[in-house]
Amino acid sequence: MVLQIRALIFDLDGVLAETPMLHYHSWMRLAQDEGLPFTWEQHEKMQGLVRRHSLEVFLGGKPVTDSEAVVLMARKNDYFVEYLQQLSPADRLPGTAEIMEEARAAGLKVGLGSSSQNAKQVVEKLGLLPLFDVMADGTTVPNNKPAPDIFLWVAKQCDVLPNEAVVFEDSFAGLQAALAGGFWAVGLGGKHGAGAHAELATLAEVNLSTLVGRLNEAAEKA
CB 3.0–4.6 Å: which of 30, 54, 127, 168 could bond 46 by disulfide? Predict the structure, then answer.
């Protein structure tokens, strides 16, 4: 079986850059403001979730009204945007820009499927915006990860089928979304759980050819 890969679709936080730390520090500041406990374990559970679901993890069951939730999310986002000003192309994770450039040179589409509402701003700070054909963020589809909708939307905009696209994810929710959508899934960083068709520490481990080769091996074993 020889795969026909026509698109690469990337998550953002933890895939293009180590931005999860910026989110962690933002939530921690909010926790200190509110006198609430906040742990790294809570932060890990937020990975891949949209802002409202992350707030539920942050609150740990503490009830808030919708208006209170909006205020809390806005304050956390203000902190994140403040930290975001530090971000630059030097913060790209290894191999990200290289595999995107190689894909575009080969005629493949490159898409972004991120739960972050700040996705475009982050990508601009990383200097990667010109490499994307299609971008989706936390406001693009009603049902976000672990539902596959965001990746299915990106694939449709790229005019490819799910089995013609590779999704790169570092979170459990994101990996489940990719698998549920019928995509080839590459797990990065070791925190994504089981089920990825290929696992990498960073994208610097592969180029486009070796990546497709590894996915072909996975397809033959399936």
Answer: 54
7-18+91-221 fold = Rossmann fold (3.40.50)
User: What type of residue sits at position 167?
Assistant: V
**pTM score of the predicted model:** 0.87
Distance CA 163, CA 108 (A): 14
Catalytic residues, which ones? 11, 13
pLDDT digits 0-9 by tens, 179-190: 999 999 999 987
The reply to whether domains 7-18+91-221 and 20-84 share a CATH topology is no
> 20-84: what fold?
DNA polymerase; domain 1 (1.10.150)
Average pLDDT, the chain: 94
Enumerate the domain spans of the chain.
7-18+91-221, 20-84
Per-position DSSP letters for 136-203, written without gaps between them:
E-TTTSSS-TTSSHHHHHHHHHHT--GGGEEEEE-SHHHHHHHHHTT-EEEEETT-S-S--SEEES-G
The gap between the terminal CA atoms of the chain, to the nearest Å, is: 11
Q: What is the rounded distance in angstroms from the CA atom of residue 152 to the CA atom of residue 163? A: 11
